[in-house]
């Protein structure tokens, strides 16, 4: 589950798409979406299945390469976090939670809290809680059970709750940004409890409140449904398992479904029920600014201020797949990119996707 706070640089594929968009803009013509998307799959080196999709105004297109089709399911890794943010905003719109509610309020009876100042749901959704990237005990457990294959597979909800009293905050909540899978995993647990369920009910709650209303039939946290076989250094990987932190990285989805979600984010007024309509708007609202870079954080989504308006983006990776999604509300443009190979050290595919989105937005 990758860190999306690093802004990608342009790769050759992304630069080609951006150049085409700029040339078209100078010539007062708009290149077709497929011309801008076609170079992108080449950036997913070693992938045997790639699916990219885009929306620009009323135009929609899905381009598939290799074994992928528009409904092929890929592991999305940390892109799951954007759905957890949407679930938080949906519960807040119903009045079931408040953003400044303390995490402790939604822990199971008898669970011990994180020592130190209170951590709120908003802290968790903006990576400002001060929590470490991973919960205490996960590294030791995964070292025994397969860090290079399925590092989260043996870490359960009980392990997550047992980690709370052993956690040491890196800073006072609300003062610094520190990306944390641990934090958003806890947010998923808290939302399940806030809705009256058990700590393990996050997948079912997400389906009921977000996935089903948006019509995302290919999307869920179920590792047993058909999906691509992921690859790491050219070797096939088993399905990604995240039993204790599903809200941080367990979601599977398709290019078709993720494009449908981006379309809803670009036109929240068309969504139903009303609580989801509010949530689609709320996740896009900036919550804080990063001092040095000028970047901003919404609920999980990263926001870049650009001449044509804000660009929101997030990426994700597992041991076998890479995922990217981003959109520009001002130009009603969005892009999804999925590949059946783990993120490269250079982040080439995510960088290319980011650059291609910028190119789409400039047209």
From TrEMBL:
It is an enzyme of class 3 (hydrolase). It comes from the Bacteria. The keyword Hydrolase applies. SUPFAM superfamilies: beta-lactamase/transpeptidase-like (SSF56601). Transmembrane segments: none annotated. Residues 48-347 form the Beta-lactamase-related domain. InterPro entries: AmpC-like, Beta-lactam-related, Beta-lactam/transpept-like. GO terms for molecular function: hydrolase activity. Gene3D superfamilies: DD-peptidase/beta-lactamase superfamily. Keywords: Hydrolase. Its EC number is 3.1.1.103. This is Serine hydrolase domain-containing protein. It comes from Streptomyces roseoverticillatus. The lineage of its organism: Bacteria, Bacillati, Actinomycetota, Actinomycetes, Kitasatosporales.
């Amino acid at each position: 589950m990758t860190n999306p706070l690093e802004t990608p640089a342009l790769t050759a594929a992304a630069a080609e798409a951006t150049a085409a968009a700029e040339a078209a803009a100078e010539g007062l013509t708009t290149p077709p979406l497929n011309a801008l998307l076609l170079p992108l799959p080449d950036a997913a080196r070693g992938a045997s299945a790639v699916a990219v999709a885009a929306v620009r105004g009323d135009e929609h297109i899905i381009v598939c390469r290799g074994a992928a089709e528009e409904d092929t399911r890929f592991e999305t890794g940390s892109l799951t976090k954007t759905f957890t943010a949407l679930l938080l905003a949906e519960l807040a719109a119903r009045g079931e939670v408040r953003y400044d509610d303390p995490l402790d309020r939604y822990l199971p009876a008898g669970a011990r809290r994180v020592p130190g100042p209170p951590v709120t749901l908003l802290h968790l959704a903006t990576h400002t809680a001060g929590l470490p990237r991973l919960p205490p005990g996960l590294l030791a457990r995964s070292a025994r059970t397969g860090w290079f294959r399925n590092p989260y597979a043996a870490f359960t909800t009980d392990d997550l709750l047992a980690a709370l009293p052993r956690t040491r905050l890196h800073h006072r909540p609300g003062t610094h940004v520190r990306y944390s899978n641990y934090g958003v995993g806890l947010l998923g647990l808290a939302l399940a409890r806030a809705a009256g369920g058990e700590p393990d009910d996050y997948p079912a709650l997400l389906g009921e409140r977000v996935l089903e209303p948006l019509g995302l039939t290919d999307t869920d946290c179920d590792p047993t449904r058909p999906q691509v076989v992921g690859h790491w250094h050219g070797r096939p990987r088993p399905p990604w398992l995240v039993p204790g932190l599903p809200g941080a990285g367990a979601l599977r989805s398709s290019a078709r479904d993720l494009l449908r979600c981006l379309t809803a984010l670009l036109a929240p007024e068309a969504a139903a029920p009303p609580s989801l309509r509010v949530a689609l708007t709320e996740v896009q609202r900036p919550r804080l600014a990063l001092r040095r870079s000028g970047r901003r954080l919404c609920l999980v989504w990263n926001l870049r201020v650009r001449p044509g308006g804000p660009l929101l983006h997030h990426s994700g990776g597992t041991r076998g797949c890479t995922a990217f999604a981003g959109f520009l509300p001002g130009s009603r443009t969005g892009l999804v990119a999925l590949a059946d190979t783990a993120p490269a050290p250079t982040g080439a595919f995510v960088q290319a996707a980011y650059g291609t989105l910028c190119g789409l937005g400039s047209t």
